[in-house]
Amino acid sequence: MEFSDQNIFALYLSVRTEMEPMINDIQREAVLHLGTLTRNRNFEAMEALHYLSRTSNLHPLLREMISTELRTSGVI
To answer: Which residue in 6, 33, 36, 47 is a FRET match for 68, CA 20 to 30 A apart?
Structure first.
């Protein structure tokens, strides 16, 4: 997955990091920041959250955070 906005791509990759079995602060902040950008109608941030929501090996609590951000943004 690649985005034209390198900041969105970096946030996306931060969430996808699987180095720890638990959610870390960087992942939480990245999801929240993508959610803020999505509420500001940033299409790529919205796309990143959608891709992340469909990632199979994502931590369940992180998946819930992503779903909450999408709902709060009015996307789903």
So the answer is: 6
pLDDT tens, residue by residue, 33-63:
999 999 999 999 999 999 999 988 889 999 9
Say which DSSP state 73 is in.
T
Place of tokens 């902040």: 29
Asked whether 52 and 58 are in contact (CB, 8 A), the reply is: yes
Query: From CA 22, how far away is CA 43, in angstroms rounded?
Result: 29
By C-alpha distance, which of 11, 63, 1 is closest to 36? 11
Which stretches within the chain are classed as H helix?
A: 6-16, 25-39, 43-53, 60-72
Lookup: tokens for 30: 């990245």
Looking at residue 66, its amino acid is I
pTM comes to 0.90
Residue with tokens 């959608």: 50
